[in-house]
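quick one
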Amino acid sequence: MFSKYFVLTISFILLMGVTPVINSSGKNSFNENQVYKLNPSFEKVLQTNNISYELNDKTSMRILSEYGAMFTSQSGTIVPPYVIFPDEASVSKWQATVKSEQKKMSGILVVLQAPAMKALIAAQTEAHQHKLSITPNGTTASTRSYADTAKLWQSRVEPGLNFHLGQKHITPKEAEAIRKLSPSQQIPEILKLEAKGYFFSKSLDKSILYSVAAVGTSQHISMLALDVAEHSNTNVRSLLARYGWFQTVVSDEPHFTYLGVTEDKLPSLGLKKVTSGSRIYWLPDIEAINK
Ligand SMILES: [Zn+2]
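structure w/ zinc ion:
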């Protein structure tokens, strides 16, 4: 008996020593003293798709942790070659190489990769049989350009800088230096300020990443994402899941991602199930561990 409890206690202490600090709670840090550990299946998916990543690049690792589930997309889809697209040209060049389809739904033009569109239409057909509907949530519900993501990013950075200037969290010189950077260069600087507790979401109390996607990283760029108007209906969510559409960005409630497999296959792609606010999200299994 003694040895059993001893082993349990030691295991508990060991577990406590590697507490993950990225927990999708909305207030996680961007700590210089973290190392990242990728689930081997997720790592394999990145390698198979030739996506270059650097375990020491904290910005990329943080972005992968939050939005990276789309890189596991199957059933004939193509995933972006970058964790963070560097500029407008790289996005338009890549989007032009991907086979997409467009269809007007409730008066809104929806553009998606062909397999994602096919699955969506099949889900809508079944939804109609059950007197349900699946429609886009707004005019920018599907594919977006780099400029769209840059505009959204800026709409959080600028008010955030002004607020933190007013609170004397940053100096005018620091704010000016950030403004002069390109949007993608701003990402690590904003995340560093957030690590000090100076947040940039719209409500200024959580990370900017829970408010808008970092510039050049939105899943909408990949043409595999759709914001769904009927997202709060449980039957709609489970129907979409049966057609390969899952929720993969915590706290982004209307947002669905086409992964192209059934739910039981998701762990084998290196994704983990996260429950938040009665919703199920599937995120890359990446652990940030304090050194
Ligand atoms: Zn979305």
